[in-house]
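Thread: quick sanity check before group meeting

JM: Hey all, I'm pulling together slides for Thursday and realized we never actually wrote out the predicted structure for the chain we discussed last week. Dropping the sequence here so it's in one place. If anyone has concerns about the input, flag it before I start.
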Amino acid sequence: MSPTEETVFLFDVDNTLLDNDRIEADISLHVEQQFGVAGRERFWAIFEALRAEFGFANYLDTVQRYRLEALRDPRVLGLSAFLLDYPFQSRLYLRALETLAHIRAFGRTVILSDGDAVFQPHKVQRAGLWDAVEGRVLIYVHKERMLEDVQRHYPAQRYVMVDDKPELLAAMKEIWSARLTTVFPRQGHYAHASLSMGSPPRADMAIEHVADLMSCDYSDFLLSG
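JM (edit): ok, ran it. Output follows.
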């Protein structure tokens, strides 16, 4: 088997290819401008409650519940337009699309993300990531529990997972063992929080920015083999 046939490269989206911290900051600013500080705080309180309930960022249900608390305020209807029209491509990390194109020379690239069934694929499409991986997109709830399904869709001898959450990388490594090379980009608040808490689970590779993969060759991903 050639490397391009035997290896699948899996990429997370939020804070791996896409600067989701900046997206949330923009949403926060917009909500505050429309509804004030109290409205902003209520929006994120609903958001966090739904994240705990569903296990993923659930923006659309957040807007729905926010609306139920402000049925007489027509400005709430503008929140959906703000989210759906948001210029996600402008929030891609530097050279993210070039990185995917570079890695494509070594194997199939696949988006592997958690999220809802409407907004998350919309975000992936609007950011240009869907086309960049030729439609190879998988979105789950708790993707680390769905590895058998990942293998069913994209069978390979080896996998590489690029994700900003070291705990998730460790969970996947425990299942796939030496078949998986884990890559930890130290980007975004999850990555920084893990690092600040002491000793997060160690990934096979750690990079500062996802674009650092542009300097990698296929042999660099064989660390766990």
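AS: nice. The chain has ten helices and six strands. Residues 67 and 76 are 6 Å apart (CA to CA).
JM: adding both to the slides.
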